Amino acid sequence: MRRITCALSLIFVVASGAAVHVQNAPQPLNWAGDDEKRVAELAAGGNRDDGANVVLWTPAGALGADERRALVARLDRGVAALRTLVGSHDWQTVGDRKITYYVSADRFVAHASGRAAVFIPLIRLQDGKAPYLHEAMHELLATAETRGPMDPARLERIKQRPLWLGEGLPDYVALTAAASTGTTEGDVFDIGGLDGVDRTCATRLAGPAGPEVLRFIGAVGRPDALFTTERQTVAPTFYACSTSFTHGSGPRFIRQGEKAQAQAARIQLEQLGLTLDTYRLDVGRYPTTQEGLAALRQRPFGVDRWDGPYLKKDVPKDPWDRPYIYRSPGEGGRPYDLVSLGADGAPGGEGDNRDVTSWEGDKG
Predict the structure, then answer these.
(1) Which of 97, 179, 293, 344 could anchor a disulfide with 116, C-beta 3.0 to 4.6 Å?
(2) What is the pLDDT of residues 329-361, one digit of tens each?
C-alpha cells in the first residue's frame, strides 16, 4: 500500500508539474483577431473625424472635439511627410487612399492591416506612446504578399524575411518624418529617438535578450517570442537595434525615394505638355498665364473653340504636393514654361532640390 501511495504521489507531482509547465508555456498572440469587432463598435458608437490624408475613429468620450481635430491635423502632416519620403510605387497596395486610424479601448498590440487601416489601443493614445507613423509606414510599404489571410506557405515565406529591416525601416522613416513636421512619434519601447537609439541598442544587447536578438539583426528571420506572450522579453531590444541598424540604409532609401519623385515629376510634365498641345490645336494658342492649367479642366471666359475638359481629373500637383508653376509665353521664346521647384520648394537648388522643368527635364 505504501508503494502504491508513493507511486500515486509521484504521478500527482509529475502531472502537476506538467500542468504548470503547460500553463506557463508561451501562447501565440493574435492582435488582429478582433479587428472587425473593433471597427463595428467604433462605427456604431464612436467619433469619426476626417482629414486630408487620414480618417480618425475614436471611442465616444475618449477625446474632446478640439483634441480630435488637433490629432487629425498632426496625423495629416505626418502621413503627408511619409508619402513625400517614400514616394509612389506600383507595388504599393494602399495607393493614394487615406490612412484610417481605429483607436480602440481593447488591450492589444498596435498594428497595421495592409488595407490602409491602422489599429491603436486607447491606452497608447493616453500615455503618449502611440506609434501612429510607424504603423502608417507599414501601410505605405504593404504589398500584395503581406496582406490578406495567411496560408502556411505564405506565412513561412514572410517568416524568412529580415524582420529587423521590416520594423527598423518604418521606425526610422517615421521618426524622420515626425522631426521634419515638428511633431512627435510615440516611443513604445523607449528607444530614445534617433539621437539615442544607438546607445539604447548597445546597452540592451548586453542584457539577457541580447544573444537571442542579435541572431536576427542584419539577417533573415525573426525571434519567435515577438509573436507570443513572451513578446516583452525581446521586443525592447529587438526594436531598438532594428532602428539602430537601419541608420545605414535609411538615408539611402530616402534618397532613392526622392529620385523617384523627380522622375515622376518629369513624366507628369511630359503628359501635361501633350495635353497643352491638344488644347493649342483646338483653341489656336496655349492657355495664358492668367488662365493657367485650370483651362485644361474648365473653359476660360471668351474661348469659343474649347473642346475640353482635356484632363479626366483635377490638375495634378507635383510629387511634393505643390502646384506646378505655369506661364505662357515662357522665357527665351518658349511657348510656355512648366516648373516644379523640387523637394525644397525653392527656385534653383542642387541634387534632390533641383527644379524639374518642361524644357530640360531638370535644372541645376
Answers:
(1) 97
(2) 999 999 999 999 988 888 888 777 789 999 874
Asked if residue 132 lies in contact with residue 78, where contact means CB atoms within 8 angstroms, the answer is yes
For position 335, which CATH number holds?
3.30.700.10
Q: CA torsion angle for 197, 202, 208, 211 (degrees, to 10)?
A: 110
Between 153-162, 188-197, 211-220, the lowest mean confidence (pLDDT) is in 153-162
Cell numbers for 146, please give them. 503581406
- Residue 36's CB is within 10 A of a number of other CB atoms, namely 9
Secondary structure class of 143 (helix, strand, coil)? coil
Distance of alpha carbon 108 from alpha carbon 282, whole angstroms: 60
With a CB cutoff of 8 Å and minimum separation 6, the contacts of 12 are none
- Its domain, for residue 72, covers 35-145
**How many angstroms separate the CA atoms of 180 and 83, rounded?**
13
pTM of the model: 0.65
d(CA 157, CA 36) in angstroms, rounded, equals 26
